[in-house]
Amino acid sequence: EMAAAAGAAAGLWSEVNRCGQNGDFARALKSVNKILQINKDDVTALQCKVVCLIQNGNFKEALGVINTHTKVLTSDVIAFEKAYCEYRLNRIESALKTIQSASQQTDKLKELYGQVLYRLERYDDCLAAYRDLIRNSQDEYEEERKTNLSAVVAAQSTWEKVVPEDLGLREATYELCYNSACALIGQGKLNEAMKKLQKAEELCRQSLSEDSDVTEEDIEAELAIIHGQMAYIMQLQGRTEDALQLYNQIIKLKPTDVGLLAVIANNIITINKDQNVFDSKKKVKLTNAEGVEHKLSKKQLQAIEFNKALLAMYTNQADQCRKLSASLQSQSPEHLLPVLIQAAQLCREKQHAKAVGLLQDFADQHPANAAEIKLTMAQLKIAQGSVTKACMILRSIEELQHKPGMVSALVTMYSHEEDIDSAIEVFTQAIQWYQQYQASQTRGANPKSPVHLSLIREAANFKLKHGRKKEAISDLEELWKQNPKDVHTLAQLISAYSLVDPEKAKVLSKHLPSSDTMSLKVDVDALENSHGATYVRKKAAKLTGDNQQKEQGQGEVKKKKKKKKGKLPKNYDPKVTPDPERWLPMRERSYYRGRKKGKKKDQVGKGTQGSTTTGSSELDASRTASSPPTSPRPGSGAAVSATSNVIPPRHQKPAGAPATKKKQQQKKKKGAKGGW
């Protein structure tokens, strides 16, 4: 019987060997199982079973076999297979422990170790592992190892902002070219990165087109990741429409890479922001696909979660927004974004005080990140109109007190509140900070930095502008000391001293350059004929009487606009001097005597202001022969006799019948045009 069993086992082993060489692992597994029925603890058969299960993608079952037969399949025998199964089942930490506990570090384990470190985002260790592999390996997989090495460098550049060293890798494949482009994106070299991606696309097309079985659709599917990165560069460059178009083209291809789809969907959501939220809600589903968490880095997954919370806020899902942001905060307590999202949601609900309180609590708990939070708090206070409180918050950010941007913002806000003393105090504190910093950096009297001098200059100008000349003296003296040839500063200093110490002002005035040295050789004619002198010359012409009409005439030619001549009354007499009070209402004129009593309303003229109907003197009962003559009107002249019927031009009416009511109304609408 034993001989028969041995013969059967030999036949089965031959079958296993033949199937293994043909790659038919399903049939090989059947033969291995028959061998194990004969001898259940056959180490070689168990090893073959594990390999067959791995080749068929049954990693869980393979790991089960390993764990069931731990006495037979010891770690030194099956370490690689166990670690590989754990790696493929995304049990990365377990895979690392299995590799580290192996008695002997084989080349296979070292290769797997590099992959595990990459998945754990331990890029420095990973880089060292791959360098060691490339140095000590000579086989047909050298290109793959170099590709993995370049992927590590790209990840460092992107996620850790490490400037990568030049590894001297020859970018002969599209994978190497693509990874190089990713590293350049991490450094912000977008134009160079785009050129690399274009080269990668070209290499990819060449490589795949050599295979006659590859269709155009297969090529486009392979290019999807390259095109996705191109679209990302476009988005970073502000070409959002182009980026959106390319993103949507990739989605239409329905690529099998769930990680790529999730990234593209997330980027589309960031373009949409608070617009097109219906499209964003559809795209969110792509980010929730199964297996996404194993395809992307921690920072990518975190960014997707942040955007989900923001989208919930934009779609007025307040509870969902709070739930997501609270979850993010528990995962990353020191991270700014979750608390900022919660504060934004509270502001949308008009709970500004609660939002400020939330931000204040975070700032107290995490002093290292307090600066950005306090800037947000100040913004909220300004939105509420509490400018002074906003200033207090900003001034509590010690690490930003000396920054020119902060000084400028505080001075502007205090000036708006008319708190000049506080604004000057802000300048003083910033200048003192630079003085202390300079003293700590240098022992000698080195010149002040440009920023320091700029602050002193701004402080001096601010004080002078607000009438604080005495306080500006020390700043101006410091500026003049740094640059004794600065005449403008010297003039300001003399002006300031003239109020405090006139004698000192006189002494300083001796340093001013003489009028001879300050005279400029200017070609006056050339200056007047220059393009910019037209307006000045035109204004100056108003001072002279003779040139006025001439210059006005020139202006009219330039404008090509004729001035209309004023219309004169029809009965205008050039010999009579016009009434100087003609533009005043009748009631305000010196010769106005008030309305005559007993006058019928229908007899009152309704023409232009001050006009009378013909024969009004005959109708006036008060005008009799015994009436005293009226006093002469101003400007009427002695040549006009008391009995003259001449009416000043403003009061004249056409001869003939009295005008009808309709015509009088028309005259009233037109008004008096011209200079009379």
Give a quick precis of the structure.
Belongs to the SRP72 family. By secondary structure, the protein is mainly alpha-helical.
Topology, element by element:
Layout: H1 2-22, H2 25-38, H3 43-55, H4 59-68, H5 75-88, H6 92-101, H7 107-119, H8 123-136, H9 142-159, H10 174-186, H11 190-209, H12 216-236, H13 240-252, H14 258-272, H15 277-287, H16 292-295, H17 298-314, H18 318-331, H19 336-348, H20 352-365, H21 370-383, H22 387-395, H23 404-416, H24 420-441, H25 450-465, H26 469-482, H27 487-500, H28 502-509, H29 515-518, H30 524-529, H31 534-540, H32 546-559, H33 616-619, H34 661-670
Helix pairs in contact: 1-2, 2-3, 3-4, 3-5, 4-5, 5-6, 5-7, 6-7, 7-8, 8-9, 9-10, 10-11, 11-12, 12-13, 12-14, 13-14, 14-15, 14-17, 15-17, 17-18, 17-19, 18-19, 19-20, 20-21, 21-22, 22-23, 23-24, 24-25, 25-26, 26-27, 27-28
Task: Describe, in plain words, how this protein is organized in 3D.
GO terms for molecular function: 7S RNA binding; ribosome binding. Residues 570-591 have a biased composition (Basic and acidic residues). Residues 605-639 have a biased composition (Low complexity). Residues 92-147 form a coiled coil. The chain contains 34 helices and no strands. Among the domains are: 1-104, Tetratricopeptide repeat domain (Serine Threonine Protein Phosphatase 5, Tetratricopeptide repeat), CATH 1.25.40; 414-512, Alpha Horseshoe (Serine Threonine Protein Phosphatase 5, Tetratricopeptide repeat), CATH 1.25.40. Helix 2 (25-38) runs antiparallel to helix 3. Mean pLDDT is 77; it is low at 536-544 and 611-676. The longest helix has 22 residues, at 420-441. The protein has helices at 2-22, 25-38, 43-55, 59-68, 75-88, 92-101, 107-119, 123-136, 142-159, 174-186, 190-209, 216-236, 240-252, 258-272, 277-287, 292-295, 298-314, 318-331, 336-348, 352-365, 370-383, 387-395, 404-416, 420-441, 450-465, 469-482, 487-500, 502-509, 515-518, 524-529, 534-540, 546-559, 616-619, 661-670. The protein is 65% helix and 0% strand. By secondary structure, it is mainly alpha-helical.
